[in-house]
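From the thread on structure requests for the teaching lab: each student submitted one protein with a one-line request. Submission from student K.M.:

"Model Phosphoribosylglycinamide formyltransferase from Desulfobotulus pelophilus, tokens only."
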Amino acid sequence: MKKKLAVAILLSGGGSNAQAIMDACKEGWLQAEICVVGSDRMEAGGLERAASMGVDHFVVDYKGILEHPDAASLFPVPRDFDVEAVLKKQSLFPKGHDMEKVRTFFTRRAAAERLLLDALLPYDIDLLVLAGFMRTLSPYFIDGIQREEQFPRIMNIHPALLPSFPGPDGYGDTWRHGCRIGGCTVHFVDYGEDSGPIVGQAAFSIFPEDSLEEVRRKGLEQEWSLYPACIQLYAEGRLVLEGRPGRDGKIRRVVVCS
Ligand code: GAR
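Reply posted by the TA:
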């Protein structure tokens, strides 16, 4: 029998996407095994969903780490963290941004990211799936999961039709902008904000009378089928990055092979 894709999930909230992915595995049409679910928040409802499906789960309490008055001594910067290497790779902050602030931003998160890596790596995963994980991940973390840009191993789902409306409130931004069409995007994660190669998208109509809640409801419904379908393409080895860099030198196109 073919080996199933070993998947880990990170989430911050209710975990309806994680549920859809775990259900698709159980139903057998997604040939993957969810090895572990992790969260940055103890209160994340997705952790209970994992527990009820008998899936290992863990928390790295980002708030507790970032806001602790003795954070520097309790959560020291990991020895293998190289802030200059991170600054060179990252494209979350534009050039010209206050570099001291950017340095502090990444350095403060490094201890939490090390804990995430320490929790995930023992599972020997093939793919890390971000399902409503609301924390920025630095090149330090990304490189800890995937060794080569050409072979991405982290996927994210974003609640908008990228490259429109990156950031934390995709459906809200789509709705406030008065868009007639909304959607969601599954993409590989790179060193920028929601900027990695697009794997799949799904769209839906927005009518003038639709509330933001209605837009979110329609969007989530699309996400629940799009995300497992994209993971299945990955499991089948059908996603290939096309070696044609865009204007900024980044390789963006994902080709789905038959
Ligand atoms: C989903 O809408 C997902 O697209 C979004 O969070 C929600 C999580 O819902 N992700 C992001 O905004 C990532 N930046 P869920 O916890 O019910 O799966």
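TA comment: DSSP finds nine helices and nine strands in the chain. The chain has a mean pLDDT of 95.
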